[in-house]
Structure formats: structure tokens, C-alpha cells
TrEMBL record:
It comes from Thermus aquaticus (strain ATCC BAA-2747 / Y51MC23). Pfam families: ParB_N. Keywords: Coiled coil, Plasmid. Residues 26-113 form the ParB-like N-terminal domain. This is Chromosome (Plasmid) partitioning protein ParB. Residues 96-148 form a coiled coil. The keyword Coiled coil applies. Belongs to the ParB family.
Amino acid sequence: MSRLDEVLGTALLKGKRAQGAGREVVTVPLEALVPSPQPRRRFENLEALAESIREKGVLQPLLVRPLGDGRYAIVAGERRYRAAKMAGLAEVPVRVLDLSEKEARLLALVENLQREDLNPYEETLGVLELLSEELGKTREEVVGLLRRMRKEKRGEAGHNVMASPEAQRVEEVFKALGRMTWESFVQNRLPLLGLPEDLRAALEEGALPYTAALELKKVKDLEARARLLEEAKGGLSLRELKAKVREALRREQAPQPLPKKVAARLARLDLEALPPEKRRRVEEYLEALHQLLE
């Protein structure tokens, strides 16, 4: 078993006891702690946690690794760190782990992916980052690998990747995480990367299920999508939303009325770029139309 496999296995254990076996809890100043990049972007209910910390203190030590200059990088427990600052604490209990930077990133990613409050978009980014660390590839390269794997699984020729060590490692990581299969991830989660900003924001806020976000993604008309988004936030069922999306798509695909079609063409028209004769005729028609509408 590789060192990374040991770290991955440790992070997936339910209890923190195994993570900190043989390491005593020590207290360090908050100013000595350095947050690390992670998939989790929003920290909910910090005030409630801060109030609990004011009353009872920090009950679960943060996991950190030494940086060698008296500071410690937070591996797991940034939410507790933020709440402790809000509560006015000067120091917190920590458990110091002897990990390399890469091992710490892996442990932090896996620890965060086990949280129930991680939204689907953050979870998608977290899984991709975990695979990126494991495979030594960029996120874009990981996405490309996953899509080639799916194409081969579906019987499409020219994608001989399933027997590769990389594809096997992908399968191992998804089995270890135990949240979904890699096939389900490719089908249901990768499309979240292409969400427009309005839908991504709603998803990150927890105001929209990812299934509804993917359904709304089909609607290109911004006004129609905004209306449907508000309805979905208001509790519209997925079945009802799908029916409304189908209706919106029918309206989008319907032939555009002639006045709107002409108006759209005129909005893009550059008279100066037209040949002289064609420009003269267009100007005549426009003047005649103007007089008629007057």
C-alpha cells in the first residue's frame, strides 16, 4: 500500500481517533494557523457554532501540519477555526500530523468530501481535485480521461483507456469514497461545470437541487430561465419543472414572428457596410416603413 493510500484510508475512517493515534492534543494561538485551499466555499451556521464554542470551547481538535516557522497549516477544521475567531478565542486545540504538503491536501480533500453539507457543485470540484492530486493531472485532463472512460464503457471505438493504471486508480478512488460510481459522476456531476452563473450561484447557496439546475440549464432564454428559477426555488417539484422547461423550449424553438425577426436583423445591421445600391434601397424601405408607422 502506498503512502497516499494510507492517508486516503485514514481520512475515510469514521472516527478521528484513528487519524490522531499516538499524537497528543496541543493548544496553539489562532494567529499561528493558516487556512488551506479546499473545495468548500461556504461555511453555514458559523454564528451558531461560535455561540456553542463560547459556551463549551472547541470540543474537537483541528488537524494541522507544521510549516516549520512556528505556523501550522489547517488540514481539517477550518469551520471550527473561523467560528473560534468569531467567538473571540485566542487559541484552539490542535492535533499535529506529520504529513507532506501533497498528503495534507489529499487528507483535507477527502475529509471535506465526507461532509454532508457540501453542496453538489463543491463536491464535484472536490472530487476532481482529489483525482487531480492522485493522478498528477490538471482538472481538465481528469475531465477528459473520465469522458474517454465513459465512451469506452458505452462501446464507442477508439478509447482504449479502461485497462490503463489511471482508469483503474479512478475506479479505486470512487470505491473508497463510496458516494457514487465514476459513471454516475460523469453523467450527473460533470455537466454542473458548464452551469451559467445564475444557476451555479443558486446551487452553491443550497437554494436549488442539482437535478433542477441541470434541467434549467436547457433554457437559453434568460427571462424565461429567471422565472423558472424562482419557481424552482419556491418548491416546484422536479416533475413540474420538467414540464415547464419543455414548454419554454417549445416557445424557444417556435418560428419567430416576422416583426421580431426583422427587428433583430435591423439591430445587427451595419448600413455603412452594404453595397451602395443595396444601402439605398434599404434606406428607402426604412423611410417608407417609418412613414407608415407614423
